[in-house]
Design brief:
- The protein contains 6 helices and 10 strands, in the order αααααββββββββββα.
- With 285 residues, the chain is of the alpha+beta class.
- It folds into 2 domains: 20-99 and 119-154, no CATH class; 169-278, Cupredoxins -  blue copper proteins (Immunoglobulin-like, Sandwich), CATH 2.60.40.
- The strands form 2 sheets. The chain has a 5-stranded mixed β-sheet with strand order 3-2-1-5-8. A 5-stranded mixed β-sheet has the order 4-10-9-6-7, covered by helices on one side.
- The radius of gyration is 29 Å and the shape is elongated.
- The N and C termini lie far apart (99 Å).
- The structure holds copper (II) ion.
- Residues 175, 178, 214, 249, 251, 253, 257, 260 line the site of copper (II) ion.
Length: 285
């Protein structure tokens, strides 16, 4: 009779097996389990500075310069930290499989007659609950921050697109290949190629383009919105820090897209008024 192929089977759990907690403790005492857990902790600690490193890189230009960007950075930090235990565990299993789980040639594969861990109710419930709590926390965090950011950026305008706050500054932003122009309608339409903003005053941006699609990205203010030809898109922010920050184009728009950038200069309200007056724009409202 020809050999029939019999699929490899997991060892059956014995019917008189000890309680789940006991088996779990036994499982945790196995050498490879302990090694993987130790590598997880070591890799975790090595990854821990990553969140701060990322923020340090983002803050090289002196940001965040608005509550929106503060929220975004906090979210990046929290998501990085929450993902570290999972990342380190995956890396630990990978590293152990590559370097620790090797036999010498000619060695028999280890004979494992214990039931697989996936048949252990305590272990299954623990890891399902842990990942659900982590994922649930991130969803709730994300939704709360999103609501905050939306309120801070769009809270500067009413449903009809008018500035909501009485003292809101309106800036008309125009993108074209490959420069940005900023017009201040409340100041006799002064126009500049650097974005001048007063500190602590809500700003409403009316964004458009005269040629192709660009994207107005005020990096340290944490806002980014498409600049479409023939349409006006709106966003807003309240700069809360004086200094020089960056505007970039975030939509591939042709040959010099990478150079389509300029500065944001956030200054005290008084200096802003003086600057506008010197450039021919007495406040008209
Ligand atoms: Cu562009």
């Amino acid at each position: 009779m020809a050999d029939t192929l019999i699929p490899a089977e997991e060892p059956e759990a014995p019917t008189n097996r000890p309680p789940a907690m006991h088996r779990l403790r036994e499982w945790l005492q196995r050498r490879y389990v302990r090694h993987i857990l130790i590598i997880t902790v070591v890799v975790g600690f090595l990854l821990l500075p990553l969140g701060w490193l990322m923020l340090a890189a983002m803050n090289q230009s002196g940001g965040p310069a608005s509550s929106i960007m503060e929220d975004i950075q906090q979210t990046i930090l929290v998501f990085t930290i929450v993902s570290i235990p999972i990342t380190s565990f995956v890396f630990a299993v990978l590293l152990y499989s590559l370097f620790g789980w090797k036999g010498k040639s000619g060695e028999e594969p280890p004979n494992n007659d214990n039931p697989a861990i996936r048949t252990n109710a305590v272990a299954v419930i623990t890891w399902t609950a842990a990942s659900s709590i982590l994922a649930g926390f991130l969803v709730v965090w994300g939704l709360i921050e999103l609501a905050d950011i939306t309120a801070d950026s769009y809270g500067t305008q009413s449903i009809t697109g008018q500035p909501r706050a009485d003292n809101a500054l309106v800036v008309n932003v125009t993108g074209q290949q490959w420069v940005w122009t900023f017009e201040y309608p409340q100041y006799d339409k002064v126009a500049t190629d650097v974005l001048y903003l007063p500190k602590d005053r809500p700003v409403l941006f009316n964004v458009t383009s005269v040629d192709v699609i660009h994207n107005f990205w005020a990096v340290e203010l944490g806002i980014k919105i498409d600049a479409n030809p023939g349409a006006i898109t709106q966003t807003g922010a309240t700069p809360n820090k004086e200094g020089i920050f960056n505007v970039r184009c975030a939509e591939l728009c042709g040959l010099h897209h990478a150079y389509m950038e300029t500065e944001i200069r956030v200054m005290p309200q008084e200096n802003f008024e003086n600057f506008m007056r010197e450039n021919g724009g007495g406040q008209t409202r």
